[in-house]
Amino acid sequence: MSDPLVSVLLCVYNGERYIKDAIKSIYGQTFQDYEIIVVNDGSTDRTSDILDSLDSVKLKVFWQENQGLTRSLNKAISLAKGKYLARQDADDISLPDRLRSQVNALENNPEAAVCAVGAEFIDEKSESLMFKKPVLRILSSGEGKEFQGFTHGSLMFRRDVLTEMGGYYEGIMYSQDYFLLSNVLRKYSAEMIPDIHYKFRINRSSLTLTKRRQQRRCHDAISRHFRLAGKCNDPMPPSIKTGHMNLRDIKFVDTDTLAVLSPDSYYDYVCGCYLYSSGQYNKAARRLKSVIKRNPWFLRALFMMTKVKLKSLNTG
């Protein structure tokens, strides 16, 4: 039996709520030459039982003691057989033509190492928040490129490129995906598909929300590093490796007020901002009102509510 063309990499920890829908969205692809590599990173909920119920020759599940997302992704890469590696997050949805579109794009452009697609952002109830299309931007230093508007779970890489890069760097605590992609784009080109082929879920338990302050600061430090670095193998600022930032390493971003918000409040705030950006002003107002009611001191929410009211008046 020949190896599949695509390996879908899915790492999960306590993902019982959405894991079934995520995997079924791959089962429903119009492109069928794939395998799904699932690394169950020591889940303690019903994730294992759900995975056992999703029996398929295409589904390969590997259980391990909890080691974190980065090591789990590297294990998935080592187990994959496909020429192309497609990421899939355990709470997201791939639309039916996602794999076919990305394979076609990479097959038609041998110089491209990675392919991104447009994504719809959804909330915990799968209600639409906004749409984002990937954009490739040349860094002002002239020393590389970076994606904007992409979601990591929607990317497809060439396996040989990820192997060449050594996979995900395990010395970074947060934003490992952004670091890897930045490294890839310094040497290779990319394909961008603006069509919406992925649904990215915003939920309270995601790493992006629970570790928001650390991720933002690591992201800023990595971005600054690649703006200043002359070569891919230049040493990283030590703070990137530890996750502890200082003003010498990053452009200052005031995230302290976000850090003290409860997960519920931050979730509603993020959803409200996304709804505002997509012109859903009434829905945005409802989300932001709930944040302000719980956190009347939170100036960002008050400022966003003012913007929502002004837009509503102008469009009314």
Features:
316 residues, alpha/beta, Spore Coat Polysaccharide Biosynthesis Protein SpsA, Chain A, 9-stranded mixed β-sheet, 11 strands, 42% helix
What do you see in this structure?
With 316 residues, the chain is an alpha/beta fold. It has 2 domains: 6-204, Spore Coat Polysaccharide Biosynthesis Protein SpsA, Chain A; 254-316. The protein has helices spanning 19-27, 47-53, 69-79, 98-108, 159-164, 176-187, 207-210, 212-228, 238-242, 256-259, 263-277, 281-294, 299-315; strands spanning 6-12, 34-41, 59-64, 84-87, 93-94, 112-122, 128-132, 135-138, 145-148, 156-158, 189-201. The radius of gyration is 20 Å and the shape is globular. 41% of the residues are buried.
User: In what range is the share of β-strand residues?
Assistant: 15-25%
What form results from the Cα inertia axes? globular
Helix content: 40-55%
Distance between the termini: 61 Å
Q: Give the averaged pLDDT, no decimals.
A: 84
